[in-house]
Amino acid sequence: MEKANIKRKSSEIEEEEIKENVNKKIDTTEKEKINDENKIGKSQEISEEEKKEEHFVHDVYEAIAPHFSDTRYKPWPVVDKFLNDLQPGLIGIDVGCGNGKYLGINKNVYIIGSDRCSNLIKICKERGYESLVADNLSLPYRSDSFDFAISIAVIHHFTTPERRREAIEEILRVLKKGCKVLIFVWAFEQDRKKYDEQDVLIPWHIPKKKYLNKKSLNKKDYTESEKSEHLVKYERYYHLFKKGELDDLVDQIKIGKVVETGYDRDNWYVIAERI
Amino acid sequence: MRLITHNMLQCHVKGCTKDNFPLKLEEIEIEELEAEFNADFIKSMLNRLDWKALAQTTFSLGIAQLPEEMPEELSDEMLEQLHHILLEIDITSGRMVCQGCNHVYPIRNGIPNMLLTESEV
């Protein structure tokens, strides 16, 4: 009983922290942006959204890659089924493949993984998977050329509706007509946890000794408490999708249509067809 | 990176629409892999790849001299050769150069880096 109470309390604190940090950190990002602009002039204009994604998504995954990877090994049943139902000899892509946990599910198809985070792609390569570093918003593939695609837990890291739509449209562009993409995003409506806002920063704690080398330790500015503790906190940006929101995004895209939609363990998913 | 992957890649620099495929492989290092031969899989892959680009690439690398057009009937010998080309050659380092805009995509430790800088997107 006592244990359960403590648990609940700590999760409440965590949520408070998330809310506070969203505002605080975004302020800091804004300041950093101004500083950077002064330093480098106006030649390299990076939008606020890109900056936010760089700071709260790309940089975080680069830092947490090995620890993140060790916690990601169980395939989700819907994704597993989508991949195993594919005919042998097809060719497809996993956009935002992370540590490559879906790249080896069906050995009878050819699948290329890509991720924005090079440290995660290194892990894929070490595991023998075909993979490359690429940005979801500008995929380096020929149009109308793939038989299938998956996008698992990726689109929720983009910070605006336009960028989320563009990311999906870019995947549809490289699919052949009539072919399908499975998209999973984190849901606002979760069984275990309630959120007040859709745009949140979710903490990720890394055991320092095991996962952080000296180089990455120096890279991060530690708070006094982090210096003495064995855990280091990073935060990732998420847009939590409300019911129907993912479907609406696909509906806005001329070259795509929703063919299946559903909810599975705190995530919304759609299967969209290239038209 | 295997040559199947290379065959799907295209330069994606903004405004680069001419001669953006295939990317020219330069200064490459190759490692040989072993893969199980499956004739149906190879046939299926060939229907999905751009044959001309594959022939051009394998010729320029000195790996094979494939006919200009994909033969209608593929002999067992040829399928085995294609199996080797497509699945058993791993490009571990080098670079890919766009013949349209000269953009260079590096390959290090077997991993192509296809990121562009902000101004190129």
Explain how this protein is built:
- The complex is a heterodimer of chains A (275) and B (121).
- Chain A is 42% helix and 25% strand.
- Chain A has helices at 2-40, 48-70, 77-84, 118-126, 161-174, 208-211, 214-219, 224-228, 245-251; strands at 91-95, 110-115, 131-133, 146-152, 175-186, 199-207, 231-239, 256-264, 267-274.
- In chain A, the strands form two sheets. A seven-stranded mixed beta sheet of chain A has the order 3-2-1-4-5-9-8, with helices on both faces.
- In chain A, α1 packs across α2 (48-70).
- The longest helix of chain A is centred in the N-terminal third of the chain and has 39 residues, at 2-40.
- Chain B has four helices and four strands.
- Chain B is globular, with a radius of gyration of 15 Å.
- Chain B has a single domain (3-110), classed as N-terminal domain of TfIIb.
- Chain B has 121 residues and is α+β, with helices and mostly antiparallel strands.
- A four-stranded antiparallel beta sheet of chain B has the order 1-2-3-4, covered by helices on one side.
- In chain B, 28% of the residues are buried.
- Chain B has helices at residues 3-8, 39-48, 51-60, 76-87, and strands spanning 24-32, 89-97, 104-108, 111-112.
- Classes of the chains: A alpha/beta (275), B alpha+beta (121).
- Chains A and B meet through β2, α4 and β3 of A and α1, α2 and β4 of B.
